[in-house]
Specification:
The protein is built from 10 helices and 15 strands. It is globular. The mean pLDDT is about 95. Helices cover about 35% and strands about 20% of the residues. The structure holds NADP nicotinamide-adenine-dinucleotide phosphate and ligand G4F. The site of ligand G4F has 23 residues, from helix 3 and helix 6.
Length: about 375
Amino acid sequence: MKKALITGITGQDGAYLAEHLLGLGYEVHGIKRRASLFNTDRIDHLYTDLHQDAARFILHYGDLTDSSNIIRLIAEIQPDEIYNLGAMSHVQVSFSEPEYAANVDAMGLLRILEAVRLAGLSQKTRIYQASTSEMYGMVQQIPQTEKTPFYPRSPYGVAKLYAYWIAVNYREAYNMFISNGILFNHESPLRGETFVTRKITRAAAHMALGLDKTLWLGNLNAKRDWGHAKDYVKAMHLMLQQDQADDFVVATNRTTTVRHFAIMAFQRLGVELRFEGQNEQETGIVVSSSNPDFVFTPEQIVIRIDPKYYRPTEVDLLIGDYAKAKEKLGWEPQVSLETLVEEMVDADLELVKRTLTLKNQGLKFYIPQQQ
Ligand code: NAP
Ligand code: G4F
């Protein structure tokens, strides 16, 4: 039985990857941070009682900023594969916490690589690094490939670029098996609530049932190549099954504006939107609403711009060419953007309905503010 260690197991990708690897028969170890509240919602369904002999899903407390902890865990677990998904992954937040982003996103991988070497596992343990299309930043080529020069536009992108290059350096210097997955944006119902896709689907669902009135967004013109996280974690695993370590773009080769993503999300709720105005005055307005169960009314303004969501430096356009992943890994995206949007909106609608049921039963409930 192969043993995998996943950092960032409580995140979106960690949850999908853990499920995928357990399905393939792996023993899966995950590092979770200590938090004052439970932070394992996304993986609770995978938990099995450790007192059972056959438990194959094991969580350990840890943090990528703590070398001693990383060294001890890797020496104890002796994993065949490490998937380094742990990160301060929010681009806008990285402008507020640049030093922390560097510590986790750049130095975190270095700590793992040194821990693998110290444990004498350089030739045994294969390592996946969660690299990102954010490294292309101000894009130098369209579409972006593994050969496109990088030009990061955020502290997060710069930190991830360090991790990308330290992965390449250790691969060349010590002959270690380390692969960079350069993944373009991937989403799902498990996506963090402050990333733009989930923020849109969640707010649209709240509005449909009368729990919110306005969705405040930033740059509607930004274009992203959005795929489904459950497709993308399969590519991570495939990268570590190759004869040689390498770097791969994982994308859909289709790009869409934030504005159009919003149009698609509201469409799923039977709402046709039109946009009027320029820049900060732009608004998204209901043209028509076909579902009598939802409380939208014609001419209702559902989207407005709040410049606080603008970034000091923006990544305007991402679109990835995944030809190399297709040729060498046999990987292709399976889920279309249309299906992804439908899945996310439907899941958020279900969540809101559950919240309302609790409210109607007189239970205390709380809807977090948009961020
Ligand atoms: P996510 O949902 O934000 O999950 C990040 C994970 O990292 C969480 O489990 C988080 O723990 C953990 N983490 C944060 N700081 C940590 C620390 N100091 N020590 C240990 N763990 C820490 O991100 P994701 O969307 O799953 O992305 C997974 C990885 O892929 C990240 O490295 C991200 O940068 C990269 N990536 C993502 C995308 C995308 O579109 N999703 C694209 C390219 C690359 P908590 O749950 O406790 O916060
Ligand atoms: O959803 P986002 O926050 O994702 P972003 O910045 O592209 O980063 C994500 O994808 C990267 C891969 O390219 C990952 F490496 C990274 O970890 C993360 O998963 O923003 C997407 C776009 C941006 O252009 C942003 O300016 O949406 C724009 N946007 C417009 N209004 C907004 C908002 N973004 C957020 N988060 N919130 C808004 O209100």
